[in-house]
Each structure stands twice: as structure tokens, then as C-alpha cells.
């Protein structure tokens, strides 16, 4: 497979380093607006012929299409902020190649009632274009990272093998990952962090057959994370799984997403919002137009530089509630990564690696023909079995715990 990788930041670097070890990867073009960063990654990999570098404007669909054609790629892999989803999505289609991302097109809050009703939802713009992709005989695979991505495949696996009926799906992310000595340092892109944390969170209400929204950081809940971590407070955050799972798991009554952000981090995000530093609308400063959010992104630590500073474990998982053989059942399927162990074994920052191994596995399945589809699809549309088999093949830790039915209720 020949791939145009757009973005070689924290996650893109991890994707490239893993792909370099895979036989399916014939060529992977390392494209970034920062050519020096792409060149440094090429030198780190040590295979300039297989990993050429290019400078690219990810916001220019025509430039993306031109680069894809020139390198005769089979797939455009999006590893940049979700604000660039649509131009990369459009560029791949124009070039007649497949597309994959780890997020989806952005949402826009309801204009008059944002904390009760959704406006434009995550991925709406992409799913609206499904007919064009089907007509072209090409695949756009959305949300194929860790979460969304593996979390969605855990839900599909549970529905296929573990339950007769799935009633509820709740994504719960947490652990004890931390950055000692840093007052404010997000574990992944601050641009994306602000976007998903300060937008109105979405829930699926199957009794209404529709999505609803709520206030950011609402419904705090102590979730009991496995492997000795124990209860950690999680809060509502806007995320793709809530929009993807109900499209494929028919009859599911409720879907939520909650993340363990921590009270201090929430307070700092709220402060950024209160003074307008989360805005993407340019403001005039000394004769120049600048985006407040871009200023924040420029001054906080770049997550790619913090790999050796992380301590603790990151847990991402899917809590599924339903019935099996006429009896209530609850399980939590999860992936756990230890920061220091991950850096030692892979050379990658823990969140970058934890996110990046998923599109690498997906690319392998597409290259082998184990996965195939046309149109705009989410991970739930594809067979989870070969995916989980490759996790085992590559020794990527994932596990399941049985939960006592009804002992812990989602709020």
C-alpha cells in the first residue's frame, strides 16, 4: 500500500515509525506544513526511499489531491487537527483514492438551544457525502484512532460475540496518567482538546431515537477503572463514538462518552473559555489577525516533546450493558498503556502510540483485503475479529472485565 500521511506530529510520528516495520507499507509520504519536522522524522526512520517528505497545506484540497496523484498513493491518512478533515476528505476523493482519519468533521452548536439540542453533529458533513464516495468506488473510513476507533470496534465485538441484546454503550477514558511539574500541558493537541471539551457534549437517547446535548463537563461520575487504578471521576465530553455507535448498533438505548479530565484541568479550560482564548475567530493584534486558540496552541508544551515526562497509565475502554442468555450482563473492554513502558518499548509518547497503532492496523487490514468497503463508514461497519486478532499478533495489550450488573450506573 502507498500512503500519503498528512501530519507528522505526536500521532503521525508514531504511525510512520510503526508502518516502517510493516511489509504492507510500500511507500509512506511524510507530509507536513513544517518540512523540517518531516525531514527529521525521515532521518529517524532511516529509509528516505520509502518515506519521502513533502511540504503541504492541509487546508488546500487541490494541493492534497495533487500530492496524492504525484506519489500514486492508495490512501490519504489524516493525522492533523480535525479542522482540516474536510479539505483532506475532499482532496482524497478528487484524487480518486481512499481516505482515513482518526476524528471526523467538526460540529457546530445549535444556534438557539445548544445545551439541549444538537446542531451540525460530528461527522454529519462526511456522512452527507457518502453517495459520492460510493459512486467513486472509494472508501472513507472515519474515526479510526483509539477513541473513536478501537472503542467502536470493542462495541461491535461485544454486539457480535458477548451479548444477545446490547442496551447501552458508554465510553469511559481515564487512568492515572499525569505530567509532574507542568501547570497546564495537554496529553494531545490542545486545539482538539479545546474543541471537544468546550463544545456541548452529545448523548444518544434511544427512547427518543435522537441525540441530545448537555453542558460541558456535566454529570460527573466515579468510574471504577481496572488494573488497580480504581474509581476516577469522569465527565461528559463531546466525542465521535456517541454519533457513530447508534448508526450501526440498532436498538441501543443509550450511548455516552465521559473522560477523566481532572478538576484542575477543567478549571483551566473553563478559564480559557471565559476570557475568549478558545475562540478560532481571528482578532486584530498590533495590525495582525490572529486566532486566540492558535496563540494558546503556540505557548503550551507540544505533546510530542513530553514523551519522557509522562507518568502513569492511560486506559481507554467501552462499557457495554445488555443481556446474554436472558440474563443481565455488563462488561468493560479496554486498552491500557503505561507511559514509561510505552516510551521504552516503542520510542513514542504514550498517547501518540496508543492512538497511532489503530490506523496502522486498519491499513494492514485494508492492504491484505481482510477489510473492504466503499462509501463513508465508521469502524463499526467492519468486522472486529481480524482487527482484535492483529492486536494479539502484535502483543498490544487489551482486556475485558465483567462488571456486576447494576452495581454502577451511568449518570
Description:
With 411 residues, this protein is of the alpha/beta class. The chain folds into two domains: 2-100, Rossmann fold (3-Layer(aba) Sandwich), CATH 3.40.50; 150-349 and 397-403, 2-Layer Sandwich (Dihydrodipicolinate Reductase, domain 2), CATH 3.30.360. Helices cover 34% and strands 24% of the residues. The protein has 14 helices and 18 strands. The strands form three sheets. Strands 7, 8, 9, 10, 11, 12, 15, 16 and 18 form a nine-stranded mixed sheet that branches. A seven-stranded parallel sheet has the order 3-2-1-4-5-6-17, sandwiched between helices. Helix 3 (61-70) packs across helix 4 (85-95) and helix 7 packs parallel to helix 9. The model has no long low-confidence stretch (mean pLDDT 95).
Can you tag this structure with a few keywords?
seven-stranded parallel sheet, 411 residues, Rossmann fold, Dihydrodipicolinate Reductase, domain 2, alpha/beta, 2 domains
Detail the topology: elements first, then pairings:
Blueprint: E1 2-6, H1 10-19, E2 27-32, H2 35-45, E3 53-55, H3 61-70, E4 75-78, H4 85-95, E5 98-100, H5 124-127, H6 130-136, E6 139-141, H7 150-162, E7 165-175, H8 190-198, E8 202-205, E9 210-213, E10 221-225, E11 230-236, H9 241-248, E12 254-259, H10 263-274, E13 283-285, E14 288-290, H11 292-299, E15 313-324, E16 327-338, H12 339-346, H13 350-368, E17 375-377, H14 384-393, E18 399-403
Parallel strand pairs: 1-2, 1-4, 2-3, 4-5, 5-6, 6-17, 7-12
Antiparallel strand pairs: 7-15, 8-9, 8-12, 10-11, 11-12, 13-14, 15-16, 16-18
Helix pairs in contact: 1-13, 3-4, 7-9, 7-14
Amino acid at each position: 500500500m502507498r500512503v500519503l500521511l498528512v501530519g507528522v506530529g505526536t500521532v503521525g510520528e508514531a504511525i510512520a515509525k510503526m508502518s516502517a516495520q510493516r511489509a504492507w507499507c510500500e511507500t509512506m509520504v511524510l507530509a507536513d506544513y513544517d518540512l523540517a519536522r518531516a525531514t527529521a522524522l525521515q532521518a529517524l526512520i532511516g529509509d528516505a526511499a520509502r518515506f519521502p517528505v513533502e511540504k503541504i497545506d492541509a487546508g488546500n484540497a487541490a494541493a492534497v489531491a495533487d500530492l496524492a496523484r504525484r506519489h500514486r498513493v492508495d490512501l490519504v491518512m489524516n493525522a492533523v487537527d480535525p479542522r482540516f478533515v474536510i479539505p483532506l476528505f475532499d482532496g482524497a476523493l478528487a484524487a480518486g483514492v481512499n481516505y482515513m482519519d482518526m476524528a471526523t468533521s467538526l460540529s457546530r452548536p445549535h444556534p438557539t438551544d445548544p445545551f439541549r439540542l444538537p446542531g451540525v453533529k460530528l461527522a454529519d458533513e462526511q456522512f452527507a457525502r457518502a453517495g459520492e464516495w460510493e459512486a467513486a468506488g472509494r472508501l472513507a473510513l472515519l474515526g479510526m484512532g483509539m477513541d473513536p476507533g478501537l472503542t467502536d470496534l470493542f462495541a461491535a465485538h461485544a454486539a457480535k460475540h458477548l451479548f444477545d441484546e446490547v442496551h447501552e454503550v458508554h465510553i469511559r477514558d481515564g487512568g492515572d496518567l499525569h505530567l509532574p511539574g507542568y501547570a497546564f500541558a495537554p496529553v494531545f493537541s490542545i486545539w482538539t482538546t479545546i474543541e471537544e471539551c468546550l463544545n456541548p457534549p452529545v448523548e444518544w437517547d434511544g427512547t427518543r431515537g435522537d441525540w441530545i446535548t448537555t453542558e460541558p463537563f456535566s454529570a460527573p461520575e466515579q468510574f471504577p477503572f481496572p488494573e488497580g487504578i480504581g474509581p476516577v471521576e469522569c465527565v461528559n465530553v463531546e466525542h465521535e463514538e456517541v454519533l457513530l455507535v447508534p448508526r450501526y448498533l440498532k436498538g441501543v438505548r443509550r450511548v455516552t462518552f465521559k473522560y477523566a479530565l481532572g478538576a484542575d484541568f477543567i478549571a483551566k479550560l473553563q478559564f480559557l473559555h471565559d476570557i475568549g482564548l478558545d475562540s478560532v475567530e481571528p482578532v486584530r493584534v498590533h495590525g495582525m489577525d490572529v486566532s486566540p486558540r492558535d496563540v494558546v496552541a503556540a505557548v503550551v508544551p507540544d505533546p510530542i516533546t513530553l514523551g519522557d515526562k509522562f507518568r502513569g497509565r492511560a486506559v481507554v475502554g467501552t462499557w457495554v450493558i445488555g443481556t446474554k442468555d436472558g440474563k443481565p450482563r455488563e462488561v468493560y473492554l479496554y486498552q491500557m498503556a503505561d507511559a514509561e513502558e510505552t516510551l521504552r518499548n516503542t520510542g513514542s509518547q504514550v498517547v501518540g502510540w496508543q492512538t497511532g497503532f489503530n490506523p496502522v492496523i486498519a491499513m494492514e487490514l485494508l492492504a491484505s483485503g481482510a477489510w473492504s468497503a466503499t462509501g463513508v463508514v465508521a469502524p463499526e461497519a467492519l468486522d472486529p475479529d481480524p482487527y482484535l486478532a492483529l492486536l494479539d499478533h502484535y502483543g498490544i495489550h487489551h482486556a475485558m472485565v465483567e462488571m456486576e450488573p447494576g452495581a454502577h450506573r451511568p449518570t
